[in-house]
Amino acid sequence: AAEEKQFQTAIEYFNQALDLEPLSLEANHNKGIALEKIGKLDESLENIEKSILIREDYFNSIQKKIEIYIN
Q: What global pTM score does this model have?
């Protein structure tokens, strides 16, 4: 429960960052990871895919997208 709260807090910070810079590769990617950690896979994939659209060769997001689909 405490860990989930930390991820929720992180998501709030990523949302603030994305309000300022919607095309932030890192904020989209990291928000996607945090969403995955709390089981929100559809939302996670949305952010991971946004980061891939921003930079199509961003290996970390490509790898994370594959991991979500496999698991």
A: 0.92
